[in-house]
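Researcher: Go.
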Amino acid sequence: MRHYFSAILVCSGVCLPLAAAAQAPAKPPGGYPDKPVRMLVPFVAGGGTDLVARGVAQKLTDRIGQQVVVDNRPGAGGRIAMETTKSAAADGYTITMISGTTTASSNLHKDLPYDFGRDFAPITQVTEQPYVVLVPNALPVKSIPELIALAKAKPGTLNYGSSGTGGMQHLAGTLLSQKAGISMVHVPFKGGGQVIVDLVAAQIQLAFLNPLGARPHITAGRVRGIAVTTRKRAQAFPNLPAIAETLPGFHVSNWYGLVAPARTPQPVIQYLHKSVVSVLTDADLRERLEKEGSEVLGSTPKEFGVHIVNEVQMWGKVIREAGIQAN
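Model: Structure:
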């Protein structure tokens, strides 16, 4: 993939202004779309990817005048949905909502029959949200510098929890360890619920939660938030510093975006891009996404392609250096 893109996406500088795309775009030649559009989701119903997909699909149905049907295809870390996408007709009637987990976890499998830089046509990145770094109240740490100092003083004694091996919570802790030169122990759970239970009880000393999951526990005083993982402070937690303020270049985000099969005609891709960006101006959808701690984006297909390939390459390096393997 080296001959693909190399620049890092910085949406504050290059994303298409959402307000400029509020009007429905003109349909491409050929009458597309003239039947329902299927939106694949690589994970089960009710999860983060599914909820974002359903919110976008509902608004997109109204915008394009055809039903956008969400089709959950969970399994194998997203592999089933991505294989289905790759083999689907490249006509714009199959699109897929991918996430940071989808691209990062692809590095855990050596026999994947698809390549994110070759086999999919990017449409747009829909959102980005940080993870919130949480510690138990019993831990004498109130900042990332203090956490790093404690980890260096007591190497291998700090445990951090995640919802599973190879997921973004796991990789966020791995990247923090690599960037800070510290040793922490990863404790995988079978879901996010037990992570917060053990964190409150100080059975683990660190966790990375999404804003929606973190906020009630911070507000109730059950745990302490010390930072966010995105390259700058998050709108949802303006008083929490970014890890990058201590470790320049550190950036981990939980993001969602849409792709189609490669060779989908460019007029169709551009129509889908403009249609999705236009629905992201909808006040109800934006309010819901922002309430969950997400920043609404709407990048161009080229920008999103850069982002996807950079994510695959970055996490591949992290995973190789840490020796992480799929369960």
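Model: The radius of gyration is 20 Å.
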